Amino acid sequence: MIGSIKGKIILKKDKFIIIENNDIGYKIFVSANTLNNLAHSTGSGQKEKSSLFSFWTHLHIKEDAQDLYGFLDYGELEFFEMLIGVSGIGPKGALTILSVAPVETLKKAIGTGDTSYLTKISGIGRKTAEKMVMELRDKMGKENESGSLGQEIDILEALKSLGYSQNEARDALKKISGEVDLNTKIKEALKILGKK
After folding, report:
1. pTM for the whole thing?
2. Domains of the chain
3. Continuous H helices in 88-164
């Protein structure tokens, strides 16, 4: 079992990277968040090729393939492994879930039983969202921050009503840091979306 890998990124695509370690290139599937974090941490492509990166990994073995999934943060790997433990969610589906919101936001949604938030994720229907809540809620602990989750849903709906897609709105929300009120978050999100 490969638990972690460290090396240089020699190729980066939409859903995976190739990382070279001891002259062997490993294809590692990563979330959109991980790809964004890599882009922000390196700046130029030249620096990226000369930098060493460490990934926590999960090796998924099935009848016709062996796929490696990588995460910069160990907490994200743990959450990924919880997600694939839910019947009906495979590794690719778990990566899709991890690509739409930070782990803490997803944990809040599950911890508070907010299936309406989870069904806004592409490919997650009502039954799968209910299964996620039912099977993972106890592992999330008691979350009392449903207000911030409700605020995020309100912001997403406001941005969608202004003509932005769900993905554009989520990406803008991820870039807003700190605890600010609803109106400030909407204004900041609009500034971010206006720069595109």
Report:
1. 0.70
2. 1-75 (2.40.50.140), 146-194 (1.10.8)
3. 91-100, 103-111, 115-118, 126-140, 146-161
